[in-house]
Protein backbone atom coordinates (compact mmCIF):
# COMPACT_ATOMS: atom_id res chain seq x y z
CA UNK A 1 0.00 0.00 0.00
CA UNK A 2 1.23 3.49 -0.81
CA UNK A 3 0.69 6.40 1.60
CA UNK A 4 2.31 9.79 2.04
CA UNK A 5 2.83 9.62 5.79
CA UNK A 6 1.92 8.35 9.26
CA UNK A 7 0.70 9.76 12.52
CA UNK A 8 2.17 8.80 15.89
CA UNK A 9 0.30 8.58 19.21
CA UNK A 10 2.44 8.17 22.32
CA UNK A 11 0.62 7.15 25.49
CA UNK A 12 1.86 7.39 29.05
CA UNK A 13 1.28 9.71 31.98
CA UNK A 14 4.82 8.90 33.04
CA UNK A 15 6.13 10.85 30.04
CA UNK A 16 3.98 13.88 30.74
CA UNK A 17 4.93 14.05 34.42
CA UNK A 18 8.64 13.47 33.77
CA UNK A 19 9.12 9.95 35.13
CA UNK A 20 10.09 8.73 31.66
CA UNK A 21 11.57 10.40 28.60
CA UNK A 22 9.94 9.78 25.24
CA UNK A 23 12.00 7.66 22.85
CA UNK A 24 9.44 7.21 20.06
CA UNK A 25 9.02 10.61 18.40
CA UNK A 26 12.55 10.94 17.02
CA UNK A 27 12.72 7.28 16.03
CA UNK A 28 9.38 7.34 14.18
CA UNK A 29 10.26 10.59 12.39
CA UNK A 30 13.66 9.31 11.26
CA UNK A 31 12.34 5.86 10.30
CA UNK A 32 9.59 7.37 8.17
CA UNK A 33 12.10 9.72 6.53
CA UNK A 34 14.11 6.69 5.41
CA UNK A 35 10.94 5.47 3.70
CA UNK A 36 10.33 8.91 2.15
CA UNK A 37 7.22 9.26 4.32
CA UNK A 38 6.19 12.19 6.50
CA UNK A 39 5.38 12.20 10.19
CA UNK A 40 2.05 13.99 9.77
CA UNK A 41 1.26 14.53 13.46
CA UNK A 42 2.27 13.42 16.95
CA UNK A 43 0.04 13.24 20.04
CA UNK A 44 1.37 12.68 23.56
CA UNK A 45 -1.51 11.50 25.76
CA UNK A 46 -2.01 10.52 29.40
CA UNK A 47 -3.54 7.27 30.65
CA UNK A 48 -7.03 8.73 30.59
CA UNK A 49 -9.82 6.66 29.04
CA UNK A 50 -12.01 9.57 27.93
CA UNK A 51 -9.17 11.46 26.26
CA UNK A 52 -7.73 8.30 24.69
CA UNK A 53 -11.05 7.31 23.15
CA UNK A 54 -11.63 10.81 21.77
CA UNK A 55 -8.19 11.07 20.21
CA UNK A 56 -8.21 7.53 18.82
CA UNK A 57 -11.59 8.24 17.20
CA UNK A 58 -10.04 11.35 15.64
CA UNK A 59 -6.99 9.41 14.41
CA UNK A 60 -9.15 6.63 12.97
CA UNK A 61 -11.19 9.21 11.06
CA UNK A 62 -8.11 10.54 9.28
CA UNK A 63 -6.77 9.22 5.95
CA UNK A 64 -3.22 8.35 7.05
CA UNK A 65 -2.30 5.30 9.18
CA UNK A 66 -0.80 5.82 12.62
CA UNK A 67 1.48 4.15 15.13
CA UNK A 68 0.28 4.01 18.74
CA UNK A 69 2.79 3.17 21.46
CA UNK A 70 1.93 2.35 25.05
CA UNK A 71 -0.90 1.19 27.25
CA UNK A 72 -1.33 -2.42 26.05
CA UNK A 73 0.20 -4.20 29.06
CA UNK A 74 -1.55 -6.02 31.90
CA UNK A 75 -1.80 -3.35 34.64
CA UNK A 76 -4.84 -1.20 35.55
CA UNK A 77 -3.43 1.88 33.82
CA UNK A 78 -3.14 0.05 30.47
CA UNK A 79 -6.27 1.42 28.80
CA UNK A 80 -5.35 1.50 25.13
CA UNK A 81 -6.92 -1.81 24.06
CA UNK A 82 -10.31 -0.93 25.56
CA UNK A 83 -10.25 2.61 24.15
CA UNK A 84 -9.23 1.37 20.70
CA UNK A 85 -12.20 -1.00 20.66
CA UNK A 86 -14.56 1.81 21.69
CA UNK A 87 -13.09 4.15 19.09
CA UNK A 88 -13.46 1.50 16.38
CA UNK A 89 -17.02 0.70 17.47
CA UNK A 90 -16.37 -3.00 18.17
CA UNK A 91 -16.18 -5.25 21.22
CA UNK A 92 -13.03 -6.25 23.03
CA UNK A 93 -12.49 -10.00 22.53
CA UNK A 94 -9.72 -12.48 23.20
CA UNK A 95 -7.66 -13.07 20.09
CA UNK A 96 -7.35 -16.84 19.59
CA UNK A 97 -4.01 -16.73 17.79
CA UNK A 98 -2.69 -14.30 20.37
CA UNK A 99 -3.83 -16.60 23.18
CA UNK A 100 -2.02 -19.48 21.49
CA UNK A 101 1.20 -17.46 21.40
CA UNK A 102 0.98 -16.68 25.12
CA UNK A 103 0.16 -20.28 26.06
CA UNK A 104 3.11 -21.48 24.01
CA UNK A 105 5.38 -19.01 25.79
CA UNK A 106 4.13 -19.50 29.37
CA UNK A 107 2.31 -22.83 29.25
CA UNK A 108 -1.37 -23.70 29.68
CA UNK A 109 -1.21 -22.44 33.26
CA UNK A 110 -0.58 -18.87 32.12
CA UNK A 111 -2.31 -16.39 34.44
CA UNK A 112 -5.55 -14.79 33.32
CA UNK A 113 -3.97 -11.37 33.87
CA UNK A 114 -1.38 -12.17 31.21
CA UNK A 115 -4.00 -13.51 28.82
CA UNK A 116 -5.76 -10.16 29.05
CA UNK A 117 -2.86 -8.75 27.02
CA UNK A 118 -4.40 -10.39 23.94
CA UNK A 119 -7.90 -9.04 24.50
CA UNK A 120 -8.05 -6.95 21.34
CA UNK A 121 -10.77 -5.14 19.36
CA UNK A 122 -12.84 -7.64 17.37
CA UNK A 123 -11.32 -8.12 13.92
CA UNK A 124 -7.85 -6.97 14.96
CA UNK A 125 -4.77 -8.44 13.31
CA UNK A 126 -1.58 -9.27 15.20
CA UNK A 127 1.73 -7.42 15.07
CA UNK A 128 4.56 -9.79 16.08
CA UNK A 129 6.79 -8.79 18.98
CA UNK A 130 10.37 -10.01 18.46
CA UNK A 131 11.42 -9.40 22.08
CA UNK A 132 8.98 -11.27 24.34
CA UNK A 133 6.48 -12.54 21.73
CA UNK A 134 3.50 -10.72 23.32
CA UNK A 135 1.91 -9.30 20.15
CA UNK A 136 0.56 -5.90 19.38
CA UNK A 137 -2.44 -5.43 17.12
CA UNK A 138 -3.85 -3.39 14.27
CA UNK A 139 -7.42 -2.20 13.81
CA UNK A 140 -8.66 0.09 11.05
CA UNK A 141 -5.75 2.43 10.25
CA UNK A 142 -4.04 2.10 13.65
CA UNK A 143 -1.04 -0.02 14.64
CA UNK A 144 -0.82 -0.56 18.39
CA UNK A 145 2.35 -1.68 20.13
CA UNK A 146 3.98 -1.58 23.58
CA UNK A 147 5.56 1.50 25.07
CA UNK A 148 8.95 -0.20 25.41
CA UNK A 149 11.18 1.19 22.62
CA UNK A 150 13.10 -2.09 22.22
CA UNK A 151 9.80 -3.75 21.31
CA UNK A 152 7.92 -0.96 19.55
CA UNK A 153 10.67 0.12 17.17
CA UNK A 154 11.19 -3.21 15.39
CA UNK A 155 7.42 -3.59 15.31
CA UNK A 156 7.16 -0.26 13.46
CA UNK A 157 9.67 -1.56 10.93
CA UNK A 158 7.65 -4.77 10.53
CA UNK A 159 4.47 -2.78 9.85
CA UNK A 160 6.17 -0.73 7.14
CA UNK A 161 7.83 -3.73 5.53
CA UNK A 162 4.64 -5.81 5.63
CA UNK A 163 1.98 -3.34 4.52
CA UNK A 164 3.52 -0.28 2.88
CA UNK A 165 5.70 0.90 0.04
CA UNK A 166 8.35 3.59 0.26
CA UNK A 167 7.20 7.01 -0.86
CA UNK A 168 8.55 9.03 -3.73
CA UNK A 169 12.01 10.50 -3.21
CA UNK A 170 11.70 13.77 -1.29
CA UNK A 171 13.68 16.97 -1.28
CA UNK A 172 13.99 20.07 0.86
CA UNK A 173 15.39 23.45 -0.14
CA UNK A 174 15.84 26.65 1.88
CA UNK A 175 16.15 30.22 0.64
CA UNK A 176 17.59 32.74 3.14
CA UNK A 177 16.50 36.37 2.82
CA UNK A 178 18.21 39.23 4.66
CA UNK A 179 16.27 41.99 6.43
CA UNK A 180 12.90 41.07 4.95
CA UNK A 181 9.83 40.67 7.17
CA UNK A 182 7.31 37.87 6.72
CA UNK A 183 4.54 40.43 6.33
CA UNK A 184 6.32 41.81 3.23
CA UNK A 185 5.99 38.57 1.28
CA UNK A 186 2.74 36.96 2.47
CA UNK A 187 1.11 37.53 -0.93
CA UNK A 188 4.09 35.95 -2.69
CA UNK A 189 4.06 32.92 -0.38
CA UNK A 190 0.31 32.44 -0.87
CA UNK A 191 0.79 32.53 -4.62
CA UNK A 192 3.47 29.83 -4.52
CA UNK A 193 1.27 27.61 -2.33
CA UNK A 194 -1.69 28.05 -4.68
CA UNK A 195 0.38 27.22 -7.77
CA UNK A 196 2.22 24.29 -6.13
CA UNK A 197 -0.27 22.54 -3.82
CA UNK A 198 1.82 19.35 -3.53
CA UNK A 199 4.67 21.02 -1.59
CA UNK A 200 4.92 22.42 1.93
CA UNK A 201 6.22 25.96 2.36
CA UNK A 202 7.50 27.18 5.71
CA UNK A 203 8.65 30.61 6.88
CA UNK A 204 11.02 30.84 9.84
CA UNK A 205 12.28 34.29 10.91
CA UNK A 206 15.53 34.60 12.83
CA UNK A 207 16.60 37.64 14.81
CA UNK A 208 20.27 38.67 14.53
CA UNK A 209 22.32 41.26 16.40
CA UNK A 210 22.44 43.48 13.32
CA UNK A 211 19.12 42.67 11.67
CA UNK A 212 17.08 39.64 10.77
CA UNK A 213 16.92 36.68 8.41
CA UNK A 214 13.96 34.92 6.90
CA UNK A 215 14.37 31.23 6.07
CA UNK A 216 11.88 30.09 3.41
CA UNK A 217 11.76 26.31 3.18
CA UNK A 218 10.07 24.14 0.58
CA UNK A 219 9.75 20.37 0.91
CA UNK A 220 8.04 17.67 -1.09
CA UNK A 221 8.74 15.43 -4.08
CA UNK A 222 12.02 16.23 -5.84
CA UNK A 223 10.61 17.70 -9.05
CA UNK A 224 7.84 19.57 -7.27
CA UNK A 225 10.28 21.25 -4.87
CA UNK A 226 12.56 22.39 -7.70
CA UNK A 227 9.64 23.91 -9.62
CA UNK A 228 8.21 25.65 -6.55
CA UNK A 229 11.58 27.09 -5.52
CA UNK A 230 12.18 28.45 -9.04
CA UNK A 231 8.71 30.03 -8.94
CA UNK A 232 9.45 31.57 -5.52
CA UNK A 233 12.75 33.04 -6.66
CA UNK A 234 11.13 34.52 -9.77
CA UNK A 235 8.32 36.07 -7.73
CA UNK A 236 10.78 37.60 -5.28
CA UNK A 237 12.91 38.93 -8.14
CA UNK A 238 9.88 40.57 -9.79
CA UNK A 239 9.11 42.23 -6.45
CA UNK A 240 12.70 43.52 -6.24
CA UNK A 241 13.43 41.55 -3.04
CA UNK A 242 16.33 39.41 -4.33
Question: Could you walk me through the main structural features you see in this protein, from its secondary elements to its overall organization?
Answer:
The chain is α/β, with parallel strands linked by helices and about 240 residues long. The protein folds into 2 domains: about 5-165, Molybdenum Cofactor Biosythetic Enzyme, Chain A, CATH 3.40.980.10; about 170-240, Alpha-Beta Plaits. It is about 40% helix and about 25% strand. Helix 3 (about 50-60) crosses helix 4 (about 80-90) and helix 8 packs antiparallel against helix 9. The radius of gyration is 22 Å and the shape is elongated. The relative contact order is 0.12. The mean pLDDT is about 95.
Layout: helices, strands, pairs:
Layout: E1 5-11, H1 13-16, H2 25-34, E2 38-45, H3 49-61, E3 66-69, H4 80-88, E4 92-94, H5 96-106, H6 112-115, E5 119-121, E6 125-127, E7 136-139, E8 142-145, H7 149-163, E9 170-178, H8 186-195, E10 200-208, E11 211-221, H9 222-238
Parallel strand pairs: 1-2, 1-3, 3-8
Antiparallel strand pairs: 4-5, 6-7, 7-8, 9-11, 10-11
Amino acid sequence: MKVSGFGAILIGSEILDGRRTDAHFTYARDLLAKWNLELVYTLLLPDDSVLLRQQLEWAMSRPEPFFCCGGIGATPDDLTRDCAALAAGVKLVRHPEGEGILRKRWGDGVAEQRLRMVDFPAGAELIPNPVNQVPGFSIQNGYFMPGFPEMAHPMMVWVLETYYKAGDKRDSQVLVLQDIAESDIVKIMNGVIERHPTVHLSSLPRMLDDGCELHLGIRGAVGDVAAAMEDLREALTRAGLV
